[in-house]
DNA sequence: TCTGGGGTCCTAGGACCC
DNA sequence: TCTGGGGTCCTAGGACCC
């Protein structure tokens, strides 16, 4: 248990990582996402601040991003997402953070918690200078638990430091909508509004039982605790152990032919099987995902009996599930997922 | 405007068992 | 003969995050 939790978040990570190896792009709007095909049906993963200035943010459809930037920034640069490279850059940053001698919990490519019993502002500045040695920059949130640290980072971006504790929690965001809290999205915000809860302070004062009746026995009380600013003070410093592996593809054009669908499914299943084998663990359950032209998404899953990592067995079960699902509309996306056995 | 890919966790209903 | 309640597993879907 740590007295202070710090949350480090790399600024515009994917775009910044690209600038590391292409310094000549500095100052230009840089948009990372998809496979680099200008017409692909994909979205922006990360946009540099120069691109954000023109309304291009994460999640913007790539075609729309091109249109928005074409007007004012014909010099904008579009790059395909190179996940293997970003992972290497991330690994190096996390290695440096672990070198600080404090507990570190990695929670994403570009985010980590660092715990300390020492002076948190001094550590926050050390984190920023340490990360800067890689050529990247980060914002740091300081909190008395993980939730307050992560929330604080939102006030620190880009590249700053902000502290959020029990002392200033409600003064800072008590009147903000519940969606200001990490883990509360649009659907939950809507459901809470139906209960008359429209602010973080209101959520904190709600009766957990009332929220549970609307949002579930576990989630209801959890949301109330979020409103109160409660979070962990214990970090999980162990390596991340994946619970599932999946691969999915949105096709350039919708597929209707059953043989085409099965051929694509087989490719995905084999890629998943490769990932499962690389984990050195068995697959216990196989799932597929089908999204049709109308964007309706359905899933099917079934236990793999016996569990294993044989690509043929995983692909065969995926094929059975696709036949059962038998989509009757043109298919936009196919996905295959393997749930992994508990690590030994 | 036309909506990615890779993940995690929770919920709820039905089956099944005692 | 009829009725019960609780626990657990399986599965589909929802919500959210980066």
Structural class: alpha+beta
Order of helices and strands: EHEEHHEHEEHEHEHHHHHEHEEHE
- Can you tell me the CATH topology of the largest domain? Dna Ligase, domain 1
- Per CATH, the architecture of the largest domain is 2-Layer Sandwich
How much of the sequence lies in strands comes to 15-25%
Structure description:
The chain is α+β, with helices and mostly antiparallel strands and 344 residues long. The protein has four domains: 4-9 and 97-169, Alpha-Beta Plaits, CATH 3.30.70; 15-83, 3-Layer(aba) Sandwich (MutS, DNA mismatch repair protein, domain I); 176-227, Orthogonal Bundle (DNA polymerase, domain 1); 244-340, DNA polymerase, Y-family, little finger domain (Dna Ligase, domain 1), CATH 3.30.1490.100. 40% of the residues lie in helices and 23% in strands. It has helices at residues 13-21, 49-52, 62-72, 83-98, 120-132, 146-156, 169-173, 186-194, 200-205, 208-215, 219-227, 258-279, 311-325; strands spanning 4-10, 30-32, 46-47, 77-79, 104-108, 111-116, 138-143, 161-164, 244-255, 283-292, 297-308, 331-340. Strands 5-6-1-7-8 form a five-stranded mixed β-sheet. α12 (258-279) packs antiparallel against α13 (311-325). The two termini are 27 Å apart. The protein binds a DNA duplex (18 and 18 nucleotides) through residues 13, 33-34, 40-46, 58-64, 67, 81, 83, 107-111, 182-188, 215-219, 222, 242-250, 285, 287, 295, 297-303, 333, 335, 337.
Topology (elements, then pairings):
Blueprint: E1 4-10, H1 13-21, E2 30-32, E3 46-47, H2 49-52, H3 62-72, E4 77-79, H4 83-98, E5 104-108, E6 111-116, H5 120-132, E7 138-143, H6 146-156, E8 161-164, H7 169-173, H8 186-194, H9 200-205, H10 208-215, H11 219-227, E9 244-255, H12 258-279, E10 283-292, E11 297-308, H13 311-325, E12 331-340
Parallel strand pairs: 2-4, 7-8
Antiparallel strand pairs: 1-6, 1-7, 2-3, 5-6, 9-12, 10-11, 10-12
The structure holds a DNA duplex (18 and 18 nucleotides).
Catalytic activity: DNA(n) + a 2'-deoxyribonucleoside 5'-triphosphate = DNA(n+1) + diphosphate
Protein name: DNA polymerase IV
Organism: Pseudonocardia nematodicida
